[in-house]
């Protein structure tokens, strides 16, 4: 299988819950999977790490170690931490440039990131915006001769689907790599409160995918929403 996959997340835990199955599945099939975490989630997504007299650097180091362990389980080829800070995640031209440089380096044909709307976590909205701006910059020859073919953007499922107006049009069967995703989830003990929740989400999406005959019997799935239309040569599979 040709091409590469780039995952861009606001916080270090996001990739495991939202698209860990897709990452493991494609890595198993020979696709180069790359990951960018814009922050360690040290301020708003590391509650259990803030126990006793602990320093911010110690919390960030703990979250980095968890992310590295999870990424290794999922088969990630490269992992970049941009350490922008979170709650709120800052946005700048330099942040966009850094994501754009990763796109040019990896030549990703698909990018997985947060959906456009998430009123409960504006860090996710900023990540979506920066990712699209980085895509725009990476495909522009005026920013360098190594410009890229515009990749598809797939938004992974947010924590509160209905609140975000998320309407998936892609269901991915991740049954064959579920155990990898589960192990990666367990590599994030700082957010162990999410383990059971995202197991239920995967089972629900698996049941929905199983309503299609050829996917009958699959148990786990992930949901995605494409931003740009797919280009096909046939409407019949």
Name the descriptors:
237 residues, alpha/beta, 7-stranded mixed beta sheet, 6 helices, globular, LmbE-like_dom_sf
Characterise this structure:
With 237 residues, the protein is an alpha/beta fold. The protein has helices at 14-28, 56-74, 93-106, 122-138, 178-186, 195-209; strands at residues 4-9, 32-37, 78-81, 110-113, 152-156, 170-173, 221-226. A seven-stranded mixed beta sheet has the order 3-2-1-4-5-7-6, with helices on both faces. Helix 1 (14-28) runs antiparallel to helix 5 (178-186) and helix 2 (56-74) runs antiparallel to helix 5. The longest helix is centred in the first third of the chain and has 19 residues, at 56-74. The chain is globular and about 60 Å long. The model has no long low-confidence stretch (mean pLDDT 95).
Quote the distance from N terminus to C terminus.
Answer: 18 Å
Average of pLDDT:
95
One letter per element, helices H and strands E, the order comes to EHEHEHEHEEHHE
Q: Provide the spatial order of strands within the biggest beta sheet.
A: 3-2-1-4-5-7-6
> Given the C-alpha coordinates, what overall shape results?
globular
Given the helix and strand composition, which structural class is it?
A: alpha/beta
Using the CA coordinates, give the radius of gyration. Answer: 17 Å
Number of helices in the DSSP assignment = 6
Unreliable spans: none
Strand content: 5-15%
Please outline the major beta sheet. 7 strands, mixed
Fraction of residues in H or I helices: 25-40%
- The total of beta strands comes to 7
InterPro entries: GlcNAc_PI_deacetylase-related, LmbE-like_dom_sf
Organism: Bordetella genomosp. 1
Protein name: PIG-L domain-containing protein
């Amino acid at each position: 299988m040709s091409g590469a996959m780039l995952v861009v997340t606001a916080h270090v835990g996001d990739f495991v819950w939202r698209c860990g199955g897709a990452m493991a599945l494609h890595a198993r099939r020979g696709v180069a999977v790359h990951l960018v975490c814009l922050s360690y989630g040290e301020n708003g997504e590391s509650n259990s790490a803030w126990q006793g007299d602990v320093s911010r650097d110690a919390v960030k180091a703990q979250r980095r170690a968890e992310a590295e362990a999870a990424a290794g389980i999922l088969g990630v080829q490269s992992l970049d931490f941009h350490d922008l800070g979170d709650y709120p995640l800052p946005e700048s031209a330099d942040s966009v440039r850094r994501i754009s440089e990763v796109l040019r380096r990896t030549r990703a044909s698909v990018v997985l990131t947060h959906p456009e709307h998430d009123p409960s976590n504006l860090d996710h909205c900023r990540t979506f915006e920066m990712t699209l701006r980085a895509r725009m910059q990476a495909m522009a020859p005026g920013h360098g001769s190594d410009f890229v073919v515009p990749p598809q953007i797939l938004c992974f499922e947010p924590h509160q689907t209905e609140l975000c107006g998320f309407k998936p049009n892609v269901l991915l069967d991740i049954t064959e790599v579920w155990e990898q995703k589960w192990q990666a989830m367990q590599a994030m003990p700082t957010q162990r409160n999410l383990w059971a929740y995202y197991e239920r989400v995967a089972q629900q999406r698996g049941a929905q995918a199983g309503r299609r005959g050829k996917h009958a019997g699959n148990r786990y799935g992930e949901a995605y929403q494409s931003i740009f239309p797919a280009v096909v040569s046939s409407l019949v599979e």
